[in-house]
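Input chain follows. Return structure tokens only.
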Amino acid sequence: MKERGQCTLKHTVRRSHQLSAMSIAKDLHTLCGLQIRTTTVRRELHGMSFHGRAAAPKSCTTKCNTKR
């Protein structure tokens, strides 16, 4: 991926954080005309230190551990 595509990718992710890799790839196709795969999007974002992990729900905590 070239420098222009990387800048557009970074701008797209900063604009809205909750996009999936598939929707980001479609946005890049409409904005820059790049045919890019979702795995490439994930790899490039990982190289830019964007990690897409969501926090796990912790509903199984006990009453004594909630005070801590």
